[in-house]
Amino acid sequence: MKSKNPILEVRHLRKHFGPKVVLKDVSFSAQQGEILCVIGQSGHGKSVIMKNIMGLMKPDGGQILFKNRVIASPTTDSSTYDEVRQKFGLLFQGAALFDSMTVGENIGFSLRERTSLSEEAIEEKISLGLEMVGLENIQDLMPAELSGGMKSRVGLARAVALEPEIMLYDEPTSALDPIMSDKINDLILSLRDRLNMTSIVITHDMSSAYKIADSIAMLYNGKIIFHGSPAEIRASRNPYIQQFIRGQRKIYYALDSENKFEEQFSSDTIREHRDHQKLFRGIENLRVEPKIRKVTPP
């Protein structure tokens, strides 16, 4: 059962840029240790939500609460957020490493700027951060020497260096191949388990969302139109939601049981939807027999 006091709560968030209203009325909450994926089409305001949570933008309406304390609203002084800034970590899209700094300098930057730790303690944290993301002994490399996946992992090590209570990910698997995307998803799960962080993941990748999410919130037309478990979103009858989630590649299935899957997709259903046979590859107990055509040798 969910706690009555979420660690993070967004209440009726509104944001506009000139005459364009991006967020009309966004509300959701996240519990301690939960992974919440916020999904939706590109350009619909997912990253705007994240920037408001991070204090990079000020809401035009509504409130953002951290541990029941209002940290952002149209009337809240920015100094209020400054008091809790270190409680939030952010993995930027594309990692956003400093090109002129080594890997070690990138990870240690916030530690040197925001803490009074000794240089020895900082170096120890840098090594630990790299070990957590599976990249040891690369402190002296430059970002230009790293692959896209390595940059993402270094960015993640930098983001968790201050041991945040809430971690935000902005499209963490964008521009990565499927294998590296899966490694990043595994890291998100591993770091949550290891550090007990609450994670807010901005994504439009349903395969990733199904794998890592405890709950999924869907943004459409400036509002959250769904917030529930991966199994519940798959069962939704909302036509827009179904169009969105079915248009994504499906690798991970968050269903309550195999029986539920078998009931939803009977053999009759498969015959009626032969154009979608790829959806069923790799799913146990389902077989689609191809028609075999005889070929007469010349």
Write the SSE topology:
Elements: E1 8-17, E2 20-30, E3 35-39, H1 46-53, E4 61-66, E5 69-72, H2 78-82, E6 88-91, H3 103-114, H4 119-132, H5 148-159, E7 166-170, H6 178-195, E8 198-202, H7 206-212, E9 215-220, E10 223-228, H8 230-235, H9 239-246, H10 258-264, H11 267-272
Helix pairs in contact: 3-4, 3-5, 4-5
Q: In short, what is this structure?
A:
The protein has two domains: 167 residues, Rossmann fold (3-Layer(aba) Sandwich); 63 residues. The protein is 35% helix and 21% strand. The chain is built from eleven helices and ten strands.
Can you describe what's shown?
There is one protein chain. The chain is of the alpha/beta class and 298 residues long. The protein has a six-stranded mixed beta sheet with strand order 6-7-8-3-9-10, sandwiched between helices. The protein contains eleven helices and ten strands. It is globular, with a radius of gyration of 22 Å. 35% of the residues lie in helices and 21% in strands.
Which terms summarize this structure?
single chain, 21% strand, 35% helix, 2 domains, 6-stranded mixed beta sheet, Rossmann fold, 4-stranded antiparallel beta sheet, 298 residues, alpha/beta
